[in-house]
Specification:
Strand 1 and strand 2 form a beta hairpin. Helix 4 packs antiparallel against helix 7, helix 6 runs antiparallel to helix 7 and helix 6 packs antiparallel against helix 10. The chain has a two-stranded antiparallel ribbon. The chain has about 325 residues and is mainly alpha-helical. The protein is built from 13 helices and 2 strands, in the order ααααααααααββααα. The longest helix has 29 residues. The chain binds Phenylacetyl coenzyme A. Phenylacetyl coenzyme A (FAQ) binds next to helix 2, helix 6 and helix 9.
Length: about 325
């Protein structure tokens, strides 16, 4: 029946679903700009999960015990799974997995700025789990209510796994913080390096965020970049105390009057440079991903041959 509706009626039906906080599903008509925005955000998100495997994957062979190694392997594997759910959600919008992969390995696609930093010490695994997965949860819990059904549903499972990831990162830092003075220093040093970049994961300040207003009107995003950053900073402060570590932002205070955290100015020039591809690890991340893609060609060929064989057997 919807196929007979004209554009204005389709738009009115779409607006009514959004207003009523109902979900848009792949079968539904949607404005072209809504589809494009979702493809942009979901594919960037998927790429982040996939590229995000690299900084931690780098430590799998060097984790300090068998138990730590098993946990880290499981975590990195979870991130691969998140990438796959998200690529599948994006595919429901009409873009192919091949096209998204091409955009990534040819360096045309964005992925989170945070994965362009190096991981020189074991404590970085703690800082990534606590701060990076922590920021990811803060950003992604509201996305469980995103107006596009396949995206919101993918986020539910992803968030459950991310909260395990955050706790494992916290526990690594706690163990180091209660260890020798050198171990505690290593934990503090990792937190010093990851704290500010993790705050930039939420995106540019609201007055420089071109996509926020429309994404919020469409109920893809439920909170602005700065609102989520505020929430995250507040969440971290008691955890710093529990860890016995210091917050690297020495100017941070809570303004009782406005009810907001006042933090030192983030280095937005550094953020822009990372987005331009000039972060410390951008080139390495893409080179590595391209190499993995090339080396995986025989696996894709074998999977396609197997699928064709099954199909002809079923015919
Ligand atoms: N990095 O107008 P806005 C994870 C771009 S998953 C790079 O504010 P929007 C799990 C933005 O794309 C982490 N680019 O944009 C894990 C836009 O450029 P465009 C990923 C950024 O979309 C843990 C331009 O700046 N999470 O960590 C960044 O409304 C450990 C203007 O920005 C998600 O992707 C950035 N940080 O808001 C995995 C969550 N920020 O596209 C492994 C879903 C902004 O116009 C290990 N995404 N840009 O060329 C979102 O919530 C939103 O897309 C934001 C940005 C909040 C990231």
């Amino acid at each position: 029946m919807t196929a007979t509706l004209d554009d204005a009626a389709q738009q009115a039906r779409f607006d009514a679903l959004i207003d009523a906080d109902e979900r848009i599903e792949p079968r539904d008509w949607m404005p072209e700009a809504y589809r494009k925005t979702l493809i942009r955000q979901i594919s960037q998100h998927a790429h982040s999960e996939i590229i995000g495997m690299q900084p931690e994957g780098n430590w799998i062979t060097r984790a300090p015990s068998l138990k730590r190694k098993a946990i880290l392997i499981a975590k990195v594997q979870d991130e691969a799974g998140h990438g796959l759910y998200l690529y599948s959600a994006a595919q429901t919008l009409g873009i192919s997995r091949e096209e998204m992969t091409r955009q990534l390995i040819e360096g045309q696609a964005r992925y989170s700025s945070i994965f362009n930093y190096h991981t020189p010490t074991w404590a970085d695994m703690g800082a990534i789990g606590w701060l990076v997965d922590g920021a990811a949860i803060c950003n992604q819990v509201p996305l469980c209510r995103a107006s596009y059904g396949p995206y919101g549903r993918a986020m539910v499972r992803i968030c459950k796994e991310e909260s395990f990831h955050q706790r494992q990162g916290f526990e690594i830092l706690l163990t180091l913080s209660r260890g020798t003075p050198q171990q505690k220093q290593m934990a503090q040093d990792a937190v010093n390096r990851w704290y500010f970049p993790s705050l930039m994961m939420f995106g540019p300040p609201d007055d420089e965020s071109p996509n926020s207003a429309q994404s919020m009107a469409w109920k893809i995003k439920r909170f602005s970049n700065d609102e989520l950053r505020q929430r995250f900073v507040g969440m971290l402060q008691p955890q710093f105390e529990a860890l016995g570590l210091e917050c690297p932002d020495k100017e941070l205070y809570f303004d009782e009057e406005t009810g907001r955290w006042v933090m030192s100015e983030l280095d937005w020039e550094e953020f822009r440079e990372v987005l331009r591809g000039n972060g410390e690890a951008n080139a390495e991340r893409i080179r590595h991903r391209r190499q993995a893609h090339d080396e995986g060609e025989w696996v894709r060929e074998a999977a396609a041959a197997f699928a064709a064989k099954q199909q002809s057997a079923a015919a």
